[in-house]
Amino acid sequence: MSPTLYTDSFQILRNAGDFGNPQVLNTFQLIINKRRQLGVLIGNLPRPVPGVSVPKEVETALKQANDLINEIVDLLQKCGELMMGETKAPS
Questions:
Q1: What's the whole-model pTM score?
Q2: Fewer CB within 10 Å, N side or C side of the chain?
Q3: Coil, strand or helix at 23
C-alpha cells in the first residue's frame, strides 16, 4: 500500500471522528477495507487473451469483485444516512 493512500485513508477517518455517532467512523473503516480488498482483486486479475475463454478462477474473482462493489455501495448509502442524521437539527 502506498504511503499516500494510507495517509489519505487516515485523514478521512480522522475527519469522520468529528461525528458524534461512532457508527460513522466504523462505517468509514469498513468502506476503506472493502476498497482495499477490491483493489487487490482487480490488481490480481490476469489480462485478457484474445481467443481464450475466461478461466473459472477469473469468473469467481469477478463475482467477488462485483459483490464487493455492491457492499461498498450499501456502506456508502448507510454512511450517508448516518451523517445526515448527525446534521439534522433536533426537533
A1: 0.76
A2: C
A3: helix
- Match 487516515 to its residue by C-alpha cell: 10
Cβ neighbourhood burial of 79 (10 Å; 0-12, 13-18, 19+):
buried
Number of domains in the chain: 1
What is the domain extent for residue 29?
3-46+53-83
Name the amino acid, one letter, at 19.
F
CA end-to-end span of the chain: 45
Determine contact, residues 31/72, Cβ cutoff 8 Å: yes
Residue 6 in grid coordinates: 494510507
Residue 68 pLDDT: 97
Q: Is residue 91 situated within a structural domain?
A: no
